[in-house]
């Protein structure tokens, strides 16, 4: 039995110098090993450990087994999903450009010190990179702080810009709710010294336009002001040093009950229960310009300078929103806090009130499948941050800024499930014409024709076979949504024509070979 045991170990590959080779080759000369080998239970245990070690190290040929998957909180996008994304991006970018914005780009990683201290309690979600040649770096958490750094570094005092790029957060992902660790943000910001609330009102108008154009469901845009919140905290008895941490707790009211929020304030943050109760009275208030008027008459709150300034601007904001015809979707909500530290004035957040996902979605054949309808929270948010640029400027010069970020990944989740529930056919290419042949040995004619179409700016394809069957070519057009087929055949070559076939109607016409480009353009326009 001992010989068989050692032979098995040798077969596993551990007797070739991986461990103490001298012990393997002379097992019977060592009395300790003889005692060891007589213990069957211990033998089995050691074999199991060795097998586990072998599996961990890999096989003898150097190959290691691994699981093919995307990292946690990330995903791939197939062509149909990319087509939906392109549609969403086009709508958003079109709106940004309509409002006169220009675009910039910044590095995907920043110096760690650039990002540190800008996000309050969310700073723990920043991805830090290993030391790379003496620089401590972090992946960008959002696009706002890099934008402020860009303004300060380039001494820019006014700009209207949009930026669409990926950001990274070491968060607990909720894939079915459009919450990832790597995701796109679509930001629009106005930097510069302007009259109060005019740029702020335009940002809210932009949110209204985008969500209306996307047709993802009914929505509401909540607005508040950090100055009103700080004034409220002050009169309720919150110590100055606890303003930001209590603000972060209030920000959880959209996900948690008031009792849970109060327990965190009192139990974890050390706030007096009576102060929490006073806050509870205010954060339950919602309204419009009328609520701003009411709070301006509040004998206690209106005496606070910050709160009074915020309420006066809120009243002005609603006047401009009325002119923009968006007040039907905007609510002044005192529970809105937004946890980021850099906000200094108006803040806002758009939420869906109806996802239009009554139909149960079909199960996806990927890691992100779910049998539950998509349920998302905020789909846009932003606010005023007048002090952020000054944090980077050597002389502390401030550049007032206000902006909005569209929660694009959450919108993608809704759009994808809407398309699937409706069984809508989504085109993943923009090909307009397929150049086809009716008989064999016409590859050269097809390639000549498609080269002319490409040169004329027409989106065209040709099948990569010398002699494809005509039926296969026509079926390809129907499956991919190609509108026209330009057919080259022996008879067409003799007659000096090309046959154009409308895929939808199956109607055909012969057009002169010399005029084929013009005729195809005409057919596509009609």
UniProtKB/TrEMBL annotation:
Keywords: Aminoacyl-tRNA synthetase, ATP-binding, Ligase, Nucleotide-binding, Protein biosynthesis. Its EC number is 6.1.1.21. InterPro entries: aa-tRNA-synth_II (IPR006195), aa-tRNA-synth_II/BPL/LPL (IPR045864), Anticodon-bd (IPR004154), Anticodon-bd_dom_sf (IPR036621), His-tRNA-ligase (IPR015807), HisRS-like_core (IPR041715), HisRS/HisZ (IPR004516), HisRS_anticodon (IPR033656). L-histidine binds at residues 142-144, 169, 185, 189, 338, 342-343. GO terms for molecular function: ATP binding; histidine-tRNA ligase activity; identical protein binding; RNA binding. It holds the Pfam family tRNA-synt_His. Residues 73-415 form the Aminoacyl-transfer RNA synthetases class-II family profile domain. One of its GO terms (biological process) is mitochondrial translation. GO terms for cellular component: cytosol; mitochondrion. Signal peptide: none annotated. It catalyses: tRNA(His) + L-histidine + ATP = L-histidyl-tRNA(His) + AMP + diphosphate + H(+). The keyword Aminoacyl-tRNA synthetase applies. Belongs to the class-II aminoacyl-tRNA synthetase family. This is histidine--tRNA ligase. It comes from Erpetoichthys calabaricus. The gene is HARS1.
């Amino acid at each position: 039995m001992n010989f068989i045991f050692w032979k098995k170990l040798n077969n596993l590959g551990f007797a070739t110098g991986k461990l103490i080779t001298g012990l393997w080759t002379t097992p019977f000369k060592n009395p300790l090993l003889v005692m060891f080998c007589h213990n069957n239970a211990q033998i089995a245990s050691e074999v199991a450990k060795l097998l586990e070690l072998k599996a961990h190290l890999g096989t003898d040929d150097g190959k290691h087994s691994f699981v093919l998957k995307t990292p946690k909180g990330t995903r791939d996008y197939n062509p149909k999903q990319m087509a939906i994304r392109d549609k969403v991006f086009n709508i958003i970018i079109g709106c940004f450009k309509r409002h006169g914005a220009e675009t910039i780009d910044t590095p995907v990683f920043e110096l760690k010190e650039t990002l540190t201290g800008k996000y309050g309690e969310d700073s723990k979600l920043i991805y830090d990179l290993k030391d790379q040649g003496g620089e401590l770096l972090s992946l960008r958490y959002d696009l706002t702080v890099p934008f402020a750094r860009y303004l300060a570094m380039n001494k820019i005092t006014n700009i209207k810009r949009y930026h669409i790029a990926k950001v990274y957060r070491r968060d607990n992902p909720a894939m079915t709710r459009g919450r990832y660790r790597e995701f796109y943000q679509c930001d629009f910001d106005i930097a510069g010294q302007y009259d109060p609330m005019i740029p702020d009102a335009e940002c809210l108008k932009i949110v209204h336009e985008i969500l209306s154009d996307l047709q993802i469901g009914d929505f509401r845009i909540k607005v508040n002001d950090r100055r009103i919140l700080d004034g409220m905290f002050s009169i309720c008895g919150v110590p100055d040093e606890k303003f930001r941490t209590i603000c972060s707790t209030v920000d959880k009211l959209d996900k948690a009950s008031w009792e849970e929020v109060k327990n965190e304030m009192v139990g974890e943050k050390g706030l007096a229960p009576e102060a929490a109760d006073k806050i509870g009275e205010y954060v339950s208030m919602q309204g419009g310009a009328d609520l701003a008027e009411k709070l301006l008459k509040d004998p206690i709150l209106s005496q606070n300078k910050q709160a009074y300034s915020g309420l006066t601007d809120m009243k002005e904001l609603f006047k401009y929103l009325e002119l923009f015809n968006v007040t039907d979707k905007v609510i002044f909500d005192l529970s809105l806090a937004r946890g980021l530290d850099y906000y200094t004035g108006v803040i806002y957040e758009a939420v869906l009130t109806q996802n239009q996902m009554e139909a149960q979605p079909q199960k996806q054949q990927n890691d992100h499948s779910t049998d539950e309808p998509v349920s998302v929270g905020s789909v846009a948010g932003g606010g005023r941050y007048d002090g952020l640029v000054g944090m980077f400027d050597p002389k502390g010069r401030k550049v007032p800024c206000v902006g909005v970020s569209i929660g694009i990944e959450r919108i993608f989740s809704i759009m994808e499930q809407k398309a699937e529930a409706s069984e809508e056919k989504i085109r993943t290419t923009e090909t307009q014409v397929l150049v086809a042949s009716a008989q064999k040995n016409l590859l050269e004619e097809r390639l000549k024709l498609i080269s002319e179409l490409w040169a004329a700016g027409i989106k065209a394809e040709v099948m990569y076979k010398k002699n494809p069957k005509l039926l296969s070519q026509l079926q390809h057009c129907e499956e991919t949504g190609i509108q026209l087929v330009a057919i080259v055949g022996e008879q067409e070559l003799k007659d000096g024509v090309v046959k154009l076939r409308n895929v939808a109607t199956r109607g055909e016409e012969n057009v002169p070979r010399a005029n084929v480009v013009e005729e195809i353009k005409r057919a596509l326009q009609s």
